[in-house]
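Can you please make up a whole protein chain along with its backbone structure tokens because I've never seen that pairing?
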Amino acid sequence: MRAIWYEKYGPADEVLIYGELEKPEVGPDEVRIRLHASGANPSDFKARLGGRGEMVWPKIIPHSDGAGVVDKVGSSVGSFAEGDRVWVFNAQWQRPMGTACEFVVLPERQVVPLPENVSFEEGACLAIPAMTAHLGLFLGRSLKDKVVLVIGGAGAVGNYGIQLAKWAGAKVITTISSDEKAAIALKVGADDVVNYKNNPTITEEILDMTSGQGVDQILDVDFGENLPVTKQVLKENGVIAAYGSTRVPEPEFAWYDMMRKNYTIRMIYMYSVPDRDALKACEDIVRSCEEYPLVHQIGSVFPLEDTVSAHKKMEKFENTGNVVVKI
């Protein structure tokens, strides 16, 4: 099969190899998928640069997200049959074989039906971006008539966050950094947008949008950097669900000030969520694709043989939306 892999950590154009590898075989509880698209995420280039520690396999095929058609099923598999359209998640987590290839074998629990109204390229966006958004929004309490603040509504996770929150009946405020990104956020359902770029009045603007009441829940891309604002606009008993803190990796905060407001801080790491939460996210995402339906913001598509360019694009953070590799 055609594949992209690396045998050592390093820059994309130095370590990524395009060539032929042996097609994998299935075990009893596994499914083999003929991939049509692979979703690339920042965690993929960070892993390629050594972010997951010592390299323990001789070859790594990158990317955790993908979509395609079931090619073969193991003897114990009961949920899928050859020809089924599917999407997958966590393909390259604690294992060497990801989705930047023609065929991938995964446990049945990591394979999800792909609705007919979702293309393979769109299906390759559903795992890390949409599941992360879901895990940060659906925390055991209803979002109906709540006010949700989505930080970075034009980003891959934030864009799905807006849509899933609206699907659940919430009012959504989102932060953006340009008029172009405001248009993207409004198009998928955001009720209000506020530009965070060099904006000293962002707190007042968000409070004005809520008649001074503040927001019930926050989906945050950069916890530490945004904390000075988020703790001022979050209501008592509110939730901050954060899936990153890149610019301030070791944030400090006033514990007692936040404790008195009974805040919940939820940290999200897509790769290690419990199976029950991942299953619920997959079920809701499939249902929202069919009912809402979700809009999938694809920023760039590259052929498999040019995966190097896909990684370089992500590393420069030039992309608005998801980066997809077509196979």
Notes: The longest strand covers residues 30-40. The longest helix spans residues 275-291. The chain has eleven helices and 15 strands. The chain has a mean pLDDT of 96.
